[in-house]
Amino acid sequence: MDETLNSPVYSQSLLSRYVAERKNGLCQVSLAINGISCAGCIAGIERKISEIPHVQSIEVNPATHRASVIWKKSGLDFNQLIKQFSEIGYPARPYQTRTEENELEKERHQALVRIVTAAALGMQVMMIATALYFGDYSGMDAGLRSLLERAAMVLTIPIMVFCARPFFVGAWNNIKSRNMGMDVPVSVALIAAFAGSIWTTLGHPGQIYYESIAMFVFLLLSARFLELSARRTSLQNVSKMEKSIPDSAFLETEDGIVIRVDVLDLKPGDIVLVGPGDTLPADGVIIEGTSSTNDAILTGESKPVGHCPGDSVVAGSINIENHLKIRVSTISDDNVVNQIAHLATSAQGKRSNMSRLADRIASHFVAAVLLLATTAGVIWWFRDQQLWLPVVISTLVIACPCALSLATPAAFTATMAKLTRKGIIPIRSDFLENIKDVNHFVFDKTGTLTRGELSIVNVETAENWTRESVSIIAASLNRTTRHPFARAFLKNINHAQLIAVENLLHTPGGGFTGVVKNKKYALGSINFINKFINCKQETKQLPKTGAWEWDRPGQNRSISLLADDSGIIARFELLDTLRDDAKETIGQLKTRGYGISLLSGDDEGVVSDISKQLGIDNYHGNLSPAQKHRHLEQIKKTGQTVAMIGDGLNDAPVLAAASVSFAMGESSDLSKIHADVVLLNNRLSDIITVIEQAKKTVRVIHQNLAWAMGYNLLAIPAAITGMIPPWMAAIGMSASSLIVSFNALRLRKSNSISVENPTSDDGSADPLEATSYS
Amino acid sequence: MDILYILLPISFILVTILIWVIIWAVNNGQFDDLDGPAHRILEDDDE
Q1: B24 touching A, CB under 8 A?
Q2: Which helix (H) or strand (E) holds A120?
Q3: Given B4, B11, B22, which is nearest A116 (Cβ)?
Q4: Tell me: the pLDDT tens digits for A577-589?
Q5: Are strands A440-443 and A642-646 parallel, antiparallel or unpaired?
Q6: What is the ipTM, given to two decimal places?
Q7: How close does chain B come to A136, measured CA to CA in Å?
Q8: From the CA of A298, how many Å to the nearest CA of chain B?
Q9: 3-class secondary structure, A457
Q10: Which CATH number applies to A2-98?
Q11: Which H/E stretch holds residue A648?
C-alpha cells in the first residue's frame, strides 16, 4: 500500500483540485513532503527541485514540512514533478488537510513507539552498564563481563535498527542531496560508537558505548517529538476550521420542499434552512429570521453575534436561538473558513528571513563540525590510539545545531498557531521580525477605527411622537433591506416589536414608503421626503411642525427623515461609531511610545472630530489613496518605521508601503486582502497582542541562539581536547536540544496579554447583542 | 552468577512485552487526544 502512496499517478480531474492556475502559464501546488528531518534537508530539496527545468520556485516550510511549488505547466507534467521528489528521497504528494493530518498522526504514532522502545531497551542497557561499572571497581570475572556486554549489544541492536532509523534516513537523504543536515554527524557518531562497541565486545581492547547510544537516541527522539507536536497543533487549528463545516444542508427547493443535500452540491442562490444549534453549511445572507451566531471557530471569540435579515453570515458559525433561512452566496471552496484556512497554511508555508538565515548557518555549522571531528580524530590517532574513537564520537555528538534547525522553526510555528487561534491570521511571517522596528502606527478611519457601519446617534421627533414609536416605524420600514442605513435602524430595536408593513416600496438612493397600521409613512433623505410630501399636498413649502429645525445641516452626520401624510414626524442623525477598543488601543500604543497618525479619505471635520476623541494629534482628512501614500512616505522620510492598519481592500497600496500592515477582517472576501496580518475579530487591541507575541517570539529565538552559541563554544573545544566522554556528550547535546525546543514551545502557552478582553465602558455598547438576547 | 542465564532472558521477555503493550496502546489511539478526555468529564452527556 505504501508503494502506491509513494508514487501514485494523479489523474487530470484529481489534479484540478490541487493545482492552482497562475498567470503566464504557471501553476502552483502545495505539497506535503515526507522524510524531512532538519533544515539541511530543506535547503537540499529546494536546491534540487529548483534545478529542474521549468520549475519557477519552490519554498519548503520547515515547521509543517510543506512545500509550495510554482512551475510552467506546458513544460513539466505534475506527475513528473512528484517523481522528482521521490527520486531525491523525499516523497511528496499534493497537500490536503485530511491526508496530511493522517500522515502526521502516523508519524506521531511511530515517533511515540520509537521513543518508548528506546526508553525500555535503554533502561535495560543502563542496568547492565551499571553492573559493568561496579565490575570495574570491585573486579569482575572476564566471562561474566563478556556475557553482560553481549546482552547489552543485543539490546542495542533494535535501538540502532528501529529507533534510530529516522536519523539514518535523514542523513542518507542529506548525503544524496549533498547537503549537510544535523542527521549526518548524529548518524556517523551512532555508527562509529556502535561499531567500536561491537569490536570491543568481540574481544578487542577498547570501550563500549551501548548506554550512550541508547540514551542519545532516546533523548534526541524526544526533542524531535516536541517539534512534531508544534506542527501538529498548528495543523489541528487549521483542520478544525475546515472540519467545522457540516457535510449536508437542508435545501429549500423552488417548490418549497425541504430536502437534505450534500454541502458540495450547494450553488450560489440556493436557499438553505438552519435550525437552532446547527452549524451553518455555507456563507450567505439571511433572508428570513433573526438569531445570533457563535463564530468562535473563525474568530476565537465565543460571544454570540446578533443577526437580522440582510446580514451576511459565514459557514462554520453556529446558529443559536432561532430558525434562519439563508441564501447561499459562495460555494464551499470559496467560503470564508476555507479562505482563512488557506491563508493560514500559506503563511506557514512562507519562511521568514530569520528561518532562512538559521538554515544556512546550520548547514555551515554541521560541515564545520564534521571537519573538526575528522581533524581531531587524526590528531588523536597519532597521540593516543585508545582515545581517537571516543574523541570523534564526543565531538560529533556534542555539537548541537538544534537551536537553529529545530527550535527556530518551532518558535515560528508555535507563534503562528497561537495567533491563528485568537482570530489573528498571519498572512506573511516576516512581520514577526519587522514589527520590533516599528515606531509609528498609521490608522485608516472608516472600518478601522470606526465600525464602518452607521448608528443612530440622535433622534428628534415632532410633537405627539415618542422616540420609541418613530424608531419602531422606521425600523419596520427597513425590515427587509440590506442597506447600511437599514442596519442602523434595526440595531436598537427588539424585533418582536416590528410592525407589519403593507405596500412597501423602496426607491433606491431615496428611501421607503409603506403602510403601517393603515397609515402611510415615508422614510429617507430630505429630497425624497420633500417629494413624498409635495405629491400629497401639492404645496411647495414643507410644513414645519413645532419649533425644531428638521432641515438644518447634518454636521458630518447623515440625516434620515420620517414623514406621514401630515408632515415630518422625526429626524434621525446617523453616524459611524468608534470601535469599543479604539480609544484604549490608541492610548496603549501611545504609552508604549509609538507615534500615531490618522489618514482618512473622509471629510476633514469628521476626521478631526474623531482624532480629538481618540487623542490623535497627527491627522489628515480628504485624502485620496495616492495622497495617503505620499503622507506615509513622508512619515517614513523622517526616519520612522511605519505600521499601517486599514481595511485591506481600498487602501492596499498604502498598506503595501508600510513595513507591517494590518487589515480588519470585516470584508468577507479575504482572498483580496493585502496585508501581513488580518484581524478577524475586528479588535484593534489585537495589534497589541501581535506586538507582544512578536516580541516574545524574537526574544525566545535570541535566547535559543545565545544558548546555542555559548553551549557549542564551550562544549566542542572540550570534546576535541578529549575532556568529555561520549556518554556525557550524549547528555549534553540532548539536554541542549530539549532546552531550546521547550523554550520555543513556551510560545504556545496562552498566558494572558494585558488587553486580551477590552471591556466596553458601556454595558449596552453592542445593541445587537441586546437584541439577540431579548 | 549462573542465575544471570535465567534473569537475562526474563528481562528480555519483559522488555518485549512492555514494548508490545506500548505499541498496542499507541496504535489504539490511547495517546491521540491527551486534553480532550479531561474536558469531556465536564460536559453533560445527553442520554
Answers
A1: no
A2: helix A97-138
A3: B22
A4: 788 888 889 999 9
A5: parallel
A6: 0.87
A7: 16
A8: 20
A9: strand
A10: 3.30.70.100
A11: none
